[in-house]
């Protein structure tokens, strides 16, 4: 079956270049011998994508969209078809005449001279090389027929013929760029045997055609001009076209196609064609795979290219769902397929993909996932305590480091593009002139904007990058308390602090949650909370598969505890500060906005602008959750949009040291507390629900009681809630409640903390006492009394409530 | 954390004076506040009074480091300077040695300084005098002990050692675990 008849324009275009090639071939005989098939490496470089691109099937289908229809426009084609039809008619009428004419015209070797002048005239007229080449093509066709009849010669002859005709064109034809020609030289200065081989190569790719050899030749020459990927795309385009035209010109085809084509080849071609055809289908209209197809997939996994293409198409459909959807298919079906494909292609677990789909619009999602596949640029921070950025840059450039300033927003950052020496071991590094630090780590410190002479706390400081940045902003004045829960990681903090010449630091090893007891009254606190690390997947790809709902909840719970203790450590009365910066390297809403929202409800803090003029606003609403509107003052940073690690920064100002104890707040706390433990079971519950009757609170708490509890803390909290529920009789007047609640809110955290403590030591107890002294004295005594009472009461109440809870349940 | 005993103070100051001589008193009497030495986990830390007071908040086992670590007392009650003290030695050093750029790296890997790598040396350096080693760009790289006097250094063959290595900034990476 011959399809190539119907792609004359493209082939014509190829032929032109083929002429060029041949021209070169004959004009530069010296090079031929020298270069042979081996290309000069310098020439090879210019070729573009290279072998890999040739392998990618996905890209050619994609590219086919971009290649303009200029050569293959249906109108032109039809005109050509008309011409051809005319010729055919001519042919049919008096084939002998034609033969005679041909002999006369001389499309044989000798007469091929003739071709070019005619061509040139045409060119001048139409300024379209395709058409005249098309004409050529026609003639060639005829020639071939003639040959078949007369000589029964193979492709070799044709090659030679074509080659000769090319030679004659040497002077007239416009040249391509020199480089291309050189390349062409390299590839084409073979003897015919090699060409024959090439014919075979492309012959298999090419669909079966009467002029197999010639077409292959043309393809061959074309190959020099076009990138393999482009070639493939064109081929596809052509094919599509042919499909469309096939019906029109079927009969003609039959006439022409009785060639000396190999049978095997045409078989191959049919197969080839089939695959291509399916590709086109996918391209034209994306459709969901049926049940049996997906079943098949389970057995034979699809290759990644196909999946990638499918993701793209799927997203395109989802972005214009109303117009591009397949009739009768739900959005959910598309989404579920997308999820499956994404998790296969990027090897995420389903949970994380679902979370990411929730966070990002679909158009951004793939960008984000792609960005996670590549490393962020290496950035360093100048240690202004020891040097200046300009001096450092100069010193590093002298060592063969290629660098640039990080951006307008940082005066100390440098981006390292490449380096001939390890950037982490240069004498400058060892001398403490800079610190290797991700761009995103600058942000929380900039947001914190520490002032000279202040007392600061860095709650989880390892490995000391942010701590030392704070120190350099404070110019080694004031005091920084660098804490971290992990003693091993503190070694790097100590090392970095000393290396960078920071002298105002106390390094200690506490659990961050113990903090207000150990020491309070800080002017500013930086809380770089431990998190799931979903923003730094590029750094640690293990996150892709290792995290699940429980991990996120665990991290969020820890973060909530830490943010409260961080807030408690801040001194709101500080003349210069009273700020807390909360940041995580996670992009999960549960670990960011939700935690901050929780803190807003639990403590007298408000969000203030971070002072970072870029980054995306934090979410104020996410799925079913509604957060405080001021959360848009927080900032999110993403790998794909800011080329730094995924990051979240929120700056809080504490406006009162009093721990809020209002009744409304009280109830919120309870709902929060119960929810903290319950989240996994009932995520649809809204944390920002404010007013609940006292009846509902115990009900919920007891409702959740039967369910699995992660730790003792939650158990205690629930006990707390229940006991209170008991006390707060539904009919009780609000004012009467307040007094009780005052005691209890304080008791809540008090009761919670001892259980949280991992290693309660003597010192802790002592400091606990100190802390209590520091606490608001008005509420101190009732609180203590309640506390004592509470402990005993709890157990009793627990028992009672368990019975009751059973009833309720 | 406790103040140093007289004996400890004496040992430490003797050691310190090998590098910075009488400039020690500049360390103790500073215009910007009172600074003092404290012993914690056998290590001597140099800090301002302000930090000292705050550091009392933390229990002994939880406190990792305060201010700047100068060195540690060995079990045999000798005092050993750490590279972390370099920030305070370098500005007050009496005798200095500059090494050529090619030798920088060798010194940072813990090797002695050979005559061939010696760029400059302070006049009148005595043998076994504590010296601070600089790169030619005046970046302090570490400290050591002069193996030869300045005069001898002029005459010796290129492969002989002129400065014995004691500490270098490469230890921030090599010995991060044992610094404090």
TrEMBL record, chain A:
Any Pfam family matching the protein: RsmF-B_ferredox
Record bears the keyword ATP-binding: no
InterPro entries xrefs: MeTrfase_RsmB-F_NOP2_cat (IPR049560), MeTrfase_RsmB-F_NOP2_dom (IPR001678), Nop2p (IPR011023), RCMT (IPR023267), RCMT_NOP2 (IPR023273), RsmB-like_ferredoxin (IPR054728), RsmB/NOL1/NOP2-like_CS (IPR018314), SAM-dependent_MTases_sf (IPR029063)
Bias-annotated ranges (Basic and acidic residues): 94-112, 739-753, 762-774
Biased composition range(s): Acidic residues: 127-148, 171-204, 215-227, 246-275
Keyword RNA-binding: yes
One biological process term in Gene Ontology: rRNA base methylation
SUPFAM superfamilies according to UniProt: S-adenosyl-L-methionine-dependent methyltransferases
Residue numbers binding S-adenosyl-L-methionine: 460-466, 484, 511, 528
Subcellular location: Nucleus, Nucleolus
Residue ranges, annotated region (Disordered): 40-283, 663-792
A GO cellular-component term linked to this record: nucleolus
Start and end residues of each SAM-dependent MTase RsmB/NOP-type domain: 368-655
UniProt feature, compositional bias: Polar residues: 677-696
Molecular function GO labels: RNA binding; rRNA (cytosine-C5-)-methyltransferase activity
Active site: 585 (nucleophile)
Biased composition (Basic residues): 77-93, 775-792
UniProt entry keywords in alphabetical sequence: Methyltransferase, Nucleus, Ribosome biogenesis, RNA-binding, S-adenosyl-L-methionine, Transferase
Domain of life, per lineage: Eukaryota
Protein family: Belongs to the class I-like SAM-binding methyltransferase superfamily. RsmB/NOP family.
Name assigned to this protein: Putative ribosomal RNA methyltransferase NOP2-like
Organism: Scophthalmus maximus (Turbot)
UniProtKB/TrEMBL annotation, chain B:
Domain PUA: 95-170
Record GO terms (molecular function): RNA binding
Keyword presence, Aminoacyl-tRNA synthetase: no
Lineage: superkingdom: Eukaryota
Magnesium as UniProt keyword: no
InterPro entries per the UniProt record, alphabetical: NIP7_N (IPR040598), Nip7_N_euk (IPR055359), PUA (IPR002478), PUA-like_sf (IPR015947), PUA_sf (IPR036974), Ribosomal_synth_fac_NIP7 (IPR016686), UPF0113_PUA (IPR005155)
GO biological process, one term: ribosome assembly
Subcellular compartments: Nucleus, Nucleolus
Entry keyword set: Nucleus, Ribosome biogenesis, RNA-binding
A Pfam family of this chain: pre-PUA_NIP7
GO cellular component, as recorded: nucleolus
UniProt similarity note: Belongs to the NIP7 family.
Biological role stated in the UniProt entry: Required for proper 34S pre-rRNA processing and 60S ribosome subunit assembly.
Subunit organization: Interacts with pre-ribosome complex.
Name of this chain's protein: 60S ribosome subunit biogenesis protein NIP7 homolog
Lineage of the species this protein comes from: Eukaryota, Metazoa, Chordata, Craniata, Vertebrata
Gene: nip7
